[in-house]
Design a protein that fits this description.
alpha/beta; Rossmann fold; 2 domains; eight-stranded mixed sheet; 12 strands; binds magnesium ion
Length: about 300
């Protein structure tokens, strides 16, 4: 039997392992996650989604909420069991599950293939609705030129990674924390230069210039006007500053909000959960319960 240490956990989506081994490993790890003690926030989450599936709509951030953060944006790993668990939870909620992320919509969509969930990308500026239709904010020539100059101006900052997201651009400094202040100054100047259609969005070891016309709270509000979200109470789960607008909206609508992880800044979330693995564990538990109920009913 395979070992069960943290290094192997990181091999979930490694192409170095044969498919059968990857499936075996994913099975072992998802069983392990189910055995981990969950915090009060995730225990309540499971109870709500199992007992009252017609009452709630679920809005989930991706990085740092569903997935463990990694040293670089492209190094994140999707546990093999997660897309299926999300699909099962979505099915239990009648499709009222949406993802909200700072990632671009095409990138975020690809993480959970073959499943197609409603996704709000670029912090809500791009949306794929439950019916498959969507809206996308386009990159402008001015932003393209600005991104080019930004890459040049930060080239000397070793370890700073510029992520081109199309209609947004992020500067990550997780590998170069000493550049925090200098990078913020540059990003603030560029955001100002970009004009009122863009704003500076700080996050965990990242400064981003994103479209100003939408935020995650507005994205959640927009979903709640459409079936199958309409008439349900929102549960918003996120881990970063950009998720605060989603928490505030969920609270204002009589829903629930959960902040994941240990960010030290204040939050308006009503509950806290320790880690993405707690959230994944809760989703796996709901998915397994759903499967048992479906089997018992047939
Ligand atoms: Mg996040």
């Amino acid at each position: 039997m395979r070992g069960q240490n943290a290094a192997e956990k990181n091999l979930f989506q490694s192409t170095l392992l044969p498919a059968a081994d990857r499936e075996l490993l994913a099975g072992i790890m998802s069983e392990q996650e189910k055995l981990q003690p969950t915090d009060a926030a995730t225990r309540h989450l499971v109870r709500r989604l199992v007992d009252e599936p017609d009452r709630w709509a679920l809005f989930l951030d991706i990085d740092g909420t569903l997935l463990d953060l990694a040293a670089t944006p492209d190094a994140i790993q999707v546990p093999l069991s997660l897309p299926g668990d999300l699909a099962a939870v979505s099915g239990r909620l009648g499709g009222a599950l949406a993802l909200g992320t700072g990632r671009s919509l095409p990138y975020a969509g690809g993480l959970f293939a073959p499943h197609r969930f409603p996704i709000a990308g670029l912090h809500g500026a791009q949306a794929r609705r439950a019916d498959g239709t969507g809206s996308v904010v386009a990159e402008t020539p001015a932003l393209a030129a600005l991104k080019h100059r930004l890459a040049e101006e930060t080239a000397w900052m070793e370890g700073v990674l510029i992520e081109d997201k199309g209609a947004a651009v992020a500067a990550h400094y997780r590998l170069a924390p000493a550049y925090d202040t200098a990078l913020e100054r540059i990003m603030r100047d560029f955001a100002e230069e970009a004009g009122p259609a863009w704003v500076l969005q700080p996050g965990k070891m990242v400064f981003e210039i994103r479209p100003s016309r939408a935020d995650k709270g507005e994205a959640v509000a927009s979903y709640l006007e459409q079936p199958p979200f309409m008439g349900r109470l929102p549960i918003a789960i996120g881990d970063d500053l950009t998720d605060e607008s989603m928490f505030a909206l969920a609270n204002a609508r009589g829903g629930r909000s959960i902040r994941v992880g240990s960010l030290s800044t204040a939050t308006c979330a009503l509950a806290k959960s320790s880690s993405p693995s707690s959230i994944r564990s809760a989703l796996a538990t709901v998915a397994a319960t759903n499967a048992r109920k479906t089997a018992a009913a047939s």
